[in-house]
Amino acid sequence: MLTIQRVWRLQEKLIKLVGTECTKCGYICYPPKAACPRCGSREVREIRLPREGKVVTYTILNVPVEGFESKVPLIIALVELGKARILTQLTDVEADKVYVGMPVEATIRKSPQMIEGATHYIIKFKPIEKQSSRQ
Hints:
This protein has one helix at 4-15; strands at residues 18-22, 28-29, 44-48, 52-61, 74-81, 84-89, 103-115, 118-127. It is mainly beta. The chain has one domain (4-127). Strand 1 and strand 2 form a beta hairpin.
């Protein structure tokens, strides 16, 4: 069960994109875990993940789950951040504009769900805006 105390303890690691890397098999995990989900080793070290990456694959949910009725379509993507891949929500983009290979960056958004009456913030990813060339 997620409590406001647990969210408070983890918020800095979650917002700063701190993950864990297994020193045995090299698997990278976000959010951080005490043990490697691939090989079970407890020999993990904290690493900072890049804040920019690209969409590897995605899905668009048009049927809302309870509590997210106003958030459809919900775009869920597998994003590659260096050697890591994380499952995340895309924001600030229309569903028909998402594509595999799209460059994205981390952003902080207010969570639509409250935990024990408190609002918390989460990482989502948004498209990287192309720089316009100046003349």
